[in-house]
Amino acid sequence: MFISNKSKIIIKSNLFQIVYVTPLTSA
Hints:
Elements (H helix, E strand, L loop, with lengths): L1 H25 L1
């Protein structure tokens, strides 16, 4: 339970990076 919760947080932070960081670097 704890491990899957932690991986959900990692996935969310990865999505955050993709959505916010990638447009800035490609623009």
